[in-house]
Amino acid sequence: MKKFAATFTFALLTIFTVNAYATSSAVAAVGNSTLAPMLNKVMPAVVNISVRGQLPTMTLPYSKIPKELRPDTKSQAVPPNADIQITPRFEGVGSGVIIDAKHGYILTNAHVVKNAKLIIVTLKDGRRLQGKTIGADEKSDVAVVQIKAKHLQAISFGDSDNVQVGNFVAAIGNPFGLSQTVTSGIVSGLGRSHLGIEGYENFIQTDAPINPGNSGGALVNMHGQLVGINTAIITPSKLGGSVGIGFAIPSNMAKSVMDQIIKYGKVEHSVMGIIVQNITPALSDALQLSSTKGALISEVSPGMPAAKAGLKSKDIIISLNGKPAHNAFQISTNVGLLRPGSKVTLKVSRNGKVKTIHVVTISPKQGKKVAQNIAKPLLTGLSLRNYNQLEDNKDIIGIEIYGVDEFSLAYSAGLRPGDVILSAANKSVAKINDLKEAAKQHPDSLLIKVKRGEGGTIFMVLER
């Protein structure tokens, strides 16, 4: 996406000096009806979240510290380049949505409560309550805050998978610290990803104005159901005002993370061991596919759950846990937000036939251990070509090495560019496939005969 001079901005208002801004909202009407009855029911579930906190201590040259953050040095002269330790304090304003009235759980963004030492939640009826963070996941930018209060009103979840471009939506939050502000618009796009805003991205895009302070607020459909958590905007303005491009975390994704936080206090992510990509029209034609729907598996990592379950390169994932697969990012995001040990049911298309494959996920840390324990082939890191030359009236037939990875087993064994492998496992090798077959039959230790320059031949052993 070409951003021009635009920047991505979280819709959180961080306060260093007091400023006031006016904001307006367009009132969308469907036919001759009004949104008022629906909003009257859901607005009590949307809260204002004020935070105070401090950032991690940092060391900076005195001259580069903003004046308002410089420590008091009147009693002594401080050289401009002297290193000074500072711990910046901040205040911020965001929004949240009550999703469990009985337990006082509030859904918001992780960046709203990050580094917060004090959280104050203000309800629509004016009550101010101290909140505590139950847990937060920065990769998905979802957090759960809890308050203790009676007579709370929660919002019901909508199915964000049913949201369509063109649906009317309303954004409710506290832009620029103004309480209980509603803006309206439509869903402008779905599945927005690769924006570099968060680790897991599958955003709903809307033109309902979202401004700083709206972070963590509600994006609701015309039935008053929560379909998204407002998170970020694209804006060319230094003030971070809306230009009609806002992003919300889909409610299904937020609920999945929320459930983990409430149950376990933290979020653990999952991997299957595959790399997936979108199917472009050109790729669909080249692979002779019937459509561009689904996600193409381009690589399956050896030893990982996907490989053990039987997934293969060029398989096309058409559904995950019973829901249609629309793109690659949807697959990686949905799997990533599952807890390790979760069972994933995939329907894949392979050579025109649909197969159902079950995979049990593992944690990224476990995945790294598996990758480290997978023994790499002895020939890994070698660039090879067939060799057939007449030298001193003799035909020299073998495999020439024209490149060696410095971190490979072959390099450690002493192989270098220009070497010619004449035999492997006591058998002559005339083609690269001969060498590969010998390495396959002797995966742990392979005796090779090598011709090196004019120095004659030597024996080497490739071993782990």
How is this structure best summarized?
Helices cover 15% and strands 38% of the residues.
Structure description:
- By secondary structure, the protein is of the alpha+beta class.
- Helices cover 15% and strands 38% of the residues.
- It is built from 9 helices and 28 strands.
- It has a 6-stranded antiparallel beta barrel with strand order 11-12-13-16-15-14. Strands 3-6-7-10-9-8 form a 6-stranded antiparallel beta barrel.
- It is elongated, with a radius of gyration of 30 Å.
Residues in helices, as a percent range: 10-25%
**What profile does the largest beta sheet have?**
6 strands, antiparallel, barrel
Q: Name the structural class.
A: alpha+beta
> How far do the termini sit from each other?
46 Å
Q: Please indicate the percent range of residues in DSSP E strands (runs of 2 or more).
A: 35-45%
The gross shape turns out to be elongated
Number of helices: 9
In angstroms, what is the radius of gyration?
30 Å
Q: Which strand order spans the largest sheet, edge to edge or round the barrel?
A: 11-12-13-16-15-14
Strand tally: 28
Low-confidence spans: pLDDT under 50, at least 5 residues? 1-8, 15-31
Overall pLDDT confidence: 84
Tags for this entry?
464 residues; alpha+beta; 6-stranded antiparallel beta barrel; 9 helices; 28 strands; elongated; disordered N terminus
Can you lay out the helices and strands and say which pair or pack?
Layout: E1 7-10, E2 13-15, H1 36-42, E3 46-54, E4 58-61, E5 83-86, E6 89-100, E7 105-108, H2 110-113, E8 116-122, E9 128-137, E10 142-146, E11 168-173, E12 181-192, E13 203-206, E14 218-220, E15 226-235, E16 246-250, H3 251-264, E17 274-278, H4 281-286, E18 295-300, H5 305-309, E19 316-320, E20 323-324, H6 328-336, E21 343-350, E22 353-360, H7 364-373, E23 382-391, E24 394-404, H8 409-413, E25 420-424, E26 427-428, H9 432-441, E27 445-451, E28 457-463
